[in-house]
Design a protein that fits this description.
Order of helices and strands: EHEHEHEHEHHHHHHHHHHHHHHHH
GO molecular function, one term: deoxyribodipyrimidine photo-lyase activity
CATH class of the largest domain: Mainly Alpha
Number of domains: 3
Family: Belongs to the DNA photolyase family.
Cofactor: FAD
Radius of gyration: 23 Å
CATH topology of the largest domain: DNA Cyclobutane Dipyrimidine Photolyase, subunit A, domain 3
Strand content: 5-15%
Largest sheet: 5 strands, parallel
Low-confidence stretches: none
Distance between the termini: 61 Å
CATH superfamily of the largest domain: DNA Cyclobutane Dipyrimidine Photolyase, subunit A, domain 3
Helix content: 40-55%
Structural class: mainly alpha
Number of strands: 5
Enzyme class: lyase
EC number: 4.1.99.3
Strand order of the largest sheet: 3-2-1-4-5
CATH architecture of the largest domain: Orthogonal Bundle
Length: 454
């Protein structure tokens, strides 16, 4: 009996329900990863995430090999590749951990149908979210659209299960199926190689994820609630890319945080925000393309100013905190969460550029961009998404800098000319006060259109 384990955004050995179930069966286990950039609706990874994926797969392959197995790599539409590999390997069963995007669920359903028609057992497991999206419902049976009652409902559920132990052995077959060469996938940049900053900032892989969690709980979590909004403080967990690629499970994060004996409520609520984003995507698969709140379809976006978009992308807006954040993003593949909100608000509400352009740029440049959190958070800032505050929530980047970077440590690192008083500072693209009023006027049009329809 041979079991195939199809890895996706769960590139780890510990707390991997599909792998654990496979190891409980008799016979060898084949570990498979499929790079699927062809299935309808499946979104191809951005450049920074592709870099991370390459190194995460390297790390996983080494760990599987150390335990006697082999990680098989294949490229192509998963609905074709997974049954083909299962058939070629003579697999009796195929297991995987669930995904929650609409296109991914369709692919998984197709794979399951094909396998079962061929007489191969196919089963999926809960390994990526603490609470399955269909289990947390309002009193009327619908899904939550505001975070606080959503998270309250989650916390009223039985506590998340304990994480599963890491296997000591992954017994592979005597002759594993042929595997693609990872380097041939071209996931890392070469001409030019722009990933130097990513290499300095990050270490992908399961072991690095565990170290990051341990260091955070030992060194930073006590200051998390007080200083998490200060971009220069260094008190955030930096776990988001590890969670995005499943190098560590939310169950492991939850239980290690709770058992640390520290005050972790604020930190765990951020894990809850991640859950909220995925629950929203599950119920609204078009999250990256369409306004969650349909009344924002009437928002009067002006014609795209491509120069303004490019200057924003390059960190040349003439606004210190915005430029610092965008340069940090380009250099490291990440950006402090408070600054993410500021730069997003500036793009949408001061430059009056559709949130989808910003979402696309973050998708390409963030190592932690996933199909739920990235569009979910952009829509939250734009005012078109779940849990949105009134339309007049506009982050003033100068006020935010004074409050959260008063000593100019963050700006001084990423945009030092603003601190040194360089005479060659870029001219501000727009006047903050006037552009804020323009945004407010536009949002009033949305309200008016909504009232007319009502």
């Amino acid at each position: 009996m041979t079991t195939l384990v199809w890895f996706r955004d769960d590139l780890r050995l510990a707390d991997h329900p599909a792998l654990r179930a496979a190891l409980e069966k008799e016979g060898p286990v084949i570990c498979l990863y499929v790079l699927d950039e062809e299935s309808a609706g499946v979104r191809s990874l951005g450049g920074a995430a592709r870099w991370w994926l390459h190194h995460s797969l390297e790390a996983l392959a080494d760990r599987v090999q150390d335990r006697g197995g082999t990680l098989v790599l294949r490229r192509g539409p998963a609905a074709d590749v997974v049954p083909e590999v299962a058939d070629a390997a003579g697999a009796d069963a195929v297991f995987w951990n669930r995904r929650y995007g609409g296109a991914e669920r369709e692919v998984d359903s197709s794979v399951k149908d094909t396998l079962r028609q061929a007489g191969i057992e196919a089963h999926s497991f809960a390994g990526s979210l603490l609470f399955e999206p269909w289990t947390i419902t309002t009193g009327q049976g619908g899904h939550y659209k505001v975070f606080t009652p959503f998270w309250k409902a989650c916390l009223a559920e039985p506590p998340p299960r304990a994480p599963l132990p890491e296997p000591r052995e992954v017994p592979g077959p005597a002759s594993p199926p042929a595997s693609d060469d990872l380097d041939a996938w071209g996931l890392t940049p070469t001409a030019p190689d722009w990933a130097g900053g990513l290499r300095e900032a990050w270490e992908p892989g399961e072991l690095a994820a565990r170290r990051r969690l341990r260091d955070f709980l030992e060194q930073d979590v006590d200051e998390y609630d007080r200083a998490r909004d200060e971009p220069a403080a260094g008190t955030t967990s930096l776990l988001s890319p590890h969670l995005r690629f499943g190098e560590i499970s939310p169950y492991t994060v939850w239980h290690e945080a709770v058992s640390s004996g520290r005050d972790v409520g604020g930190f765990l609520s951020e894990i809850g925000w991640r859950e909220f984003a995925w629950h929203t995507l599950y119920h609204f698969p078009a999250l990256a393309r369409e306004n969650l709140n349909a009344r924002f379809d009437a928002f009067p976006w002006p014609e795209l100013n491509e120069d303004h978009l490019r200057f924003w992308q390059q960190g040349r807006t003439g606004v210190a905190l915005v430029d610092a954040g965008m340069r940090e993003l380009w250099e490291t593949g990440t950006m402090h969460n408070r600054v993410r909100m500021v730069v997003a608000s500036y793009l949408v509400k001061n430059l009056m550029i559709d949130w989808r352009h910003g979402e696309e740029w973050f998708w390409d440049t963030l190592v932690d961009a996933d199909e739920a959190s990235n569009p979910f958070n952009w829509q939250w800032v734009a005012g078109s998404g779940a849990d949105a505050a009134p339309y007049f929530r506009i982050f003033n980047p100068e006020t935010q800098a004074k409050k959260f970077d008063p000593q100019h440590q963050y700006v001084g690192r990423w945009a030092p000319e603003y601190v040194s008083g360089d005479e060659l500072l870029p001219e501000p693209l727009v006047d903050l006060r006037a552009s804020r009023q323009q945004a407010l006027d536009a949002y009033e049009e949305v309200k008016g259109a909504s009232n007319e329809r009502g």
